[in-house]
């Protein structure tokens, strides 16, 4: 979801440039900074970005400059008349030199700088041109983000393949667990008989069944396999998949944790830990995907 785009334009007396930066974020966070008195376009600009993006911190910045149109200078007749009236009144009271032209013009408020007046049609044409340039900038950012998405697709697909391979290896080890479980049960039965000669056969069977149930990881492996298929389907989808990949990462992690807690074999536990490592890497990359 990272990217950068810049586009510039101009119309009549104005020139402008849009810059848009995008960085990773769990949701969509839009920031908009508009210069040149075009604050009224913010809602439209945000809506244009929201139609394209679903995740990421997106900062849109517009700089607007006015060129080729010179401001004019005029005298504020009202302020000047008040100053002259006060000057004449003071002249009657005290012996003072009459004000000079330079002195009067230097007084604050006498001279004003007037910007060229725009018509409503001119303003609307300017706003339309600026928004058209924003559309172009959003196109560039979309292309930049898509290029990053393709790179991420290769990385995440490889991680899903690793999860699938580790799940298969775990399944092969799990198939060997009955023998290990049988040996463990035999040892536990012997220990129980040594410590409690009056233990009933029914109680022993209950304990054996409980141990077998706790050690059975087939359900976790089946769910991991199903999640791998779901992840591959999502990666083949052209839509926004980041949030759904986030959810799958949580499900992957849940099954890997249960696999480790049920494991009765050191090799299977090792695979479970490797699974957790790859899943954590998968989760981090999923947060970068639209």
What's the SSE blueprint?
Layout: E1 3-11, E2 14-23, E3 28-34, H1 42-52, E4 56-66, E5 72-75, H2 77-93, H3 101-106, E6 111-114, H4 120-195, H5 201-215, H6 218-235, H7 242-262, H8 266-286
Parallel strand pairs: 3-4
Antiparallel strand pairs: 1-2, 2-4, 5-6
Helix pairs in contact: 1-4, 4-5, 4-6, 4-8, 6-7, 7-8
What this model shows, in words?
Helices cover 64% and strands 16% of the residues. The protein has 290 residues and is an alpha+beta fold. The strands form 2 sheets. It has a 4-stranded mixed beta sheet, with helices on one face. The protein has a two-stranded antiparallel sheet with strand order 5-6. α1 links the parallel β3 and β4. The longest helix has 76 residues.
Describe the strand arrangement of the main beta sheet, using strand numbers.
Answer: 1-2-4-3
Query: Could you name the ranges where pLDDT drops below 50 across 5 or more consecutive residues?
Result: none
Number of E strands: 6
Range of helix content: 55-70%
Supply the helix-strand structural class: alpha+beta
- What gap, in angstroms, lies between the N and C termini? 6 Å
Count of DSSP-assigned helices: 8
CATH fold node name of one domain? Butyryl-CoA Dehydrogenase, subunit A, domain 3
Order of helices and strands: EEEHEEHHEHHHHH
Strand content: 15-25%
Largest sheet, in brief, is: 4 strands, mixed
CA-based gyration radius: 37 Å
Mean pLDDT: 82
Shape: elongated
CATH A-level architecture of one domain: Up-down Bundle
Per CATH, the class of one domain reads Mainly Alpha
């Amino acid at each position: 979801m990272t990217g950068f785009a810049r586009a510039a334009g101009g119309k009549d007396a104005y020139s402008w440039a849009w810059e848009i930066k995008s960085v990773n974020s769990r949701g969509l966070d839009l920031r908009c900074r508009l210069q040149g008195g075009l604050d009224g376009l913010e809602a439209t600009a945000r809506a244009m970005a929201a139609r394209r993006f679903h995740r990421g911190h997106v900062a849109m910045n517009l700089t607007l400059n006015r060129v080729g149109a010179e401001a004019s200078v005029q005298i504020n007749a009202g302020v000047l008349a008040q100053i002259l009236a006060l000057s004449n009144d003071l002249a009657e009271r005290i012996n003072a030199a009459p004000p000079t032209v330079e002195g009067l013009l230097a007084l604050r408020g006498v001279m004003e700088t007037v910007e060229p007046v725009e018509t409503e049609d001119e303003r609307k044409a300017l706003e339309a041109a600026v928004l058209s340039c924003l559309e172009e900038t959003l196109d560039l950012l979309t292309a930049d983000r898509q290029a990053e998405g393709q790179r991420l697709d290769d990385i995440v697909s490889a991680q899903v393949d690793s999860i699938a391979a580790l799940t298969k290896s775990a399944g092969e080890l799990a198939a060997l667990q009955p023998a290990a479980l049988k040996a463990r049960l035999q040892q536990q039965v012997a220990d129980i008989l040594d410590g409690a000669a009056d233990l009933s056969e029914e109680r022993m069977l209950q304990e054996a069944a409980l141990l077998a149930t706790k050690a059975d990881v087939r359900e976790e492996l089946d769910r991991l396999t199903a999640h791998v298929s779901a992840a591959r389907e999502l990666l083949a989808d052209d839509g926004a998949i980041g949030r759904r990949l986030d959810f799958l990462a949580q499900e992957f992690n849940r099954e890997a944790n249960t696999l480790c807690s049920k494991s009765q074999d050191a090799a299977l536990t090792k695979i479970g830990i490797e699974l957790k490592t790859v899943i954590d890497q998968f989760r981090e990359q999923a947060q970068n995907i639209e």
